[in-house]
Amino acid sequence: MCGTCGDAFDVRLGEVGGVVAQVEAVIPRLTLTATYGERMGGSKAQHAPAPVSVDAVSSLDELQRFLLNTALSIATTNNLLHGRGSGDVADYLAGNMHRIKTLPNAHDRYKQLDALLRNCENVVRVAEQRVFAGNCAECNTDLYAAKGDHEARCKTCGTTYEVLKWRAHAIKAAKYYVGTATDLSRKLAAPEYGYNITADQIRKWGTRLIGGQPKLIRQNPTHDQHGTPLAPTYRLDHVHELATNRKPLDGTAA
User: Fold this and answer.
1) Are 227 and 249 within one domain?
2) DSSP characters over 18-58
3) What is the pTM of this model?
4) pLDDT digits (tens, 9 = 90+) for 175-189
5) Helix axes 3-14, 106-128, angle to 10 degrees
């Protein structure tokens, strides 16, 4: 595996925790129940487990099995795997990237991880049916609201915000916002933008083409002070401009 692919593998491992959290958010708690009303006079309301997103569960299961299988392929008695959660395993793999690079199918494993993460991101986009509505001023949690809702409630601290007021602020502050491809993909789905741009498309815009320059300019260093690869970040207004100027295959204006 070349150094560039190794760095890309490391970056995607660093995104596992965030992607898993997003998928888990669209899976209702298994203890949650739905009320179906009275079946006959005088009887109590009937309850049943709330529906669970099968696609979301399957995408997490596939990702978890891949991470564990990869970790077990490099684990030794002197370098044991501690923890079975996706985040723990991803951290273990990132810390042993030098061993992963020696595997004969290292590049294939990177491509598989990238595909699994993109599948998880797509599941969230379809299942959530909600749009980004800003960041909570109290705890910085991302706010989401159903399309047409006038308010968005923070799931962390419970603070409620007026969506229209945030939209006006977001339009003014767009050129100052910087985020990862996944983050910007969510934000561009907000009502004030309304673009369905995948994180994968944003990453392609930020990739240097042979003999040319990338369409997006990276806004952060490639590595932190400890030499760990960082996920690329881009300006929201740059991505918004590319999204606005996209053209369909027939060459007409989008």
Assistant:
1) yes
2) HHHHHHHHTS--TT-EEE---SSTTPPPPEEEPP--HHHHH
3) 0.47
4) 677 888 888 887 777
5) 30
